Amino acid sequence: MRTPAGTECTHYYEDFNRGRAIQLCRLARINPNSLDWEPRDCGGCPVPAILQANGSPYLELTLTIRRGFLGLGRKLEVAAFCSQHLVDVAEPKTGCAQCNAERPGLSALLGGE
Fold first, then answer.
1. Among 3-7, 89-93, 107-111, the least confident range
2. Mean pLDDT in the chain?
3. Running DSSP on this structure, what letter comes out for residue 89?
4. Alpha helices in the chain (DSSP H)
5. Both ends of the chain: CA-CA distance in Å?
6. How many domains does the chain divide into?
């Protein structure tokens, strides 16, 4: 669904049908350590870019919203976990190193080794 910032995100949900006014981020909602989500958080959220770069079905993301320096602003932190190999993923955009090693690369596509 399209977020208030204009990007596509599978974790964002809104419903304005018949007088409803529901907007929520399912990713921030399930994290008890996160501040409450606000629609303006979508503007600086890295999750849509991660989802666009990595389509792995085993990638599980956790979004934590914290207060910025001296309580000013808001900081969005994303942690990634591979549910297939049970490891933390350091770079969510590239995904799990073990999952990437299992997939055939460009050399296999071009007829190399």
1. 107-111
2. 89
3. E
4. 26-29, 47-53, 97-102, 106-109
5. 40
6. 1
